[in-house]
Amino acid sequence: ATKTLGGTELARGIRAEVTSAAAELTLLGVTPRLAVVVATDDESSAWYVRSIARAAAKSGLLCDIVDLGADATTQSIRAELQRLSADPAVHGIILQTPLPAGANFEDLAASIAPDKDVDGANPLSLGRLAAGLPAYAPATAAAVLALLDHHEVPLAGRTGVVVGRSNVVGKPAAQLLLQRDATVTVCHRYTQNLGHHTRTADVLVVAVGRPGLITAQHVAEHTVVIDVGTNPTDDGGLVGDVDETSVSGRVAGLTPVPGGVGPVTTALLLQHTIQSASRSEPS
Ligand code: NAD
């Protein structure tokens, strides 16, 4: 039987801790504050930003949505990130994607102060992560590990296979698995015979953005599958990258979409902001 590795209970627990920590910090004169920089009119991005703002408000964090508009220039986005990085009242900064044509995400994210880089977007954060130095991991990659720990999936000495190599999910997830002594393979769009690699996985992390990419032929009975993909459906729903019907009953565990990685990601963004705020002096 396939175990469902849900994320809502874990997310609720993290948010409860965040809520009490936010109240404590506020009493001390530091109200945790997250800033989300937006330069797009993309609908799903707006939906995601609203969900972060709602979660922040519920936990007692301030959340500023800094909307620069879809025609913002690289210079104006960089200037805003620098301003927020220098503002002592701001503890966390997120740069939302997509960005206007011609703007480069990694290049801009380099202007986020590393101690406020709560979504691990600054290339310095990824480098520090790879070097085993303290850094914020991208919240989604951190959520993958938090889910595995919550469901007591062992990692040391196990085979971890990550499908997708983006700087925000695939690469940092691979680094975090490596840090936990897993033997890690990273697959991507040029990987030949994907199933040959994924079938070796004790833990399979899929972060591609292609519904139905992973089917029964890609998995083994011992595989625990973490589905990071979020693909909107025609009827307004959400599906992952894993064909749930196909793999169900053929793997050891599977995260649901929605209700798996997503809620944990949002909770960890807030948790990172709390960590940053608790290191700052009362203003
Ligand atoms: P991306 O487009 O930046 O990267 C996709 C990766 O998949 C690339 O590295 C590419 O090489 C690889 N790829 C493409 N086609 C492939 C194929 N046929 N076989 C194997 N690999 C292939 O995407 P991303 O930002 O890493 O996001 C991946 C997915 O995760 C998306 O669905 C996104 O919406 C979702 N996501 C979810 C959360 C969350 O909180 N749940 C957060 C971020 C991203």
From TrEMBL:
Q: Which UniProt keywords apply?
A: Amino-acid biosynthesis, Histidine biosynthesis, Hydrolase, Methionine biosynthesis, Multifunctional enzyme, NADP, One-carbon metabolism, Oxidoreductase, Purine biosynthesis
Q: Where is the Tetrahydrofolate dehydrogenase/cyclohydrolase NAD(P)-binding domain?
A: 138-279
Is the keyword Hydrolase assigned to this protein?
yes
Catalysed reactions listed for this entry = (6R)-5,10-methenyltetrahydrofolate + H2O = (6R)-10-formyltetrahydrofolate + H(+); (6R)-5,10-methylene-5,6,7,8-tetrahydrofolate + NADP(+) = (6R)-5,10-methenyltetrahydrofolate + NADPH
Q: Name one Pfam family in it.
A: THF_DHG_CYH_C
Under Enzyme Commission nomenclature, its number is 1.5.1.5, 3.5.4.9
Which residues are noted in the entry as NADP(+)-binding?
164-166, 230
Q: In which pathway does it act?
A: One-carbon metabolism; tetrahydrofolate interconversion
Q: Among its keywords, does the record have Oxidoreductase? A: yes
Domain of life (superkingdom)? Bacteria
**Residue ranges occupied by any Tetrahydrofolate dehydrogenase/cyclohydrolase catalytic domain in the UniProt entry:** 6-119
**Family statement drawn from the similarity comment of this UniProt entry:** Belongs to the tetrahydrofolate dehydrogenase/cyclohydrolase family.
Question: What function is annotated for this protein?
Answer: Catalyzes the oxidation of 5,10-methylenetetrahydrofolate to 5,10-methenyltetrahydrofolate and then the hydrolysis of 5,10-methenyltetrahydrofolate to 10-formyltetrahydrofolate.
What assembly does the database describe for this protein?
Homodimer.
Name listed for the protein in its UniProt record: Bifunctional protein FolD
- What organism is this sequence from? Saccharopolyspora erythraea
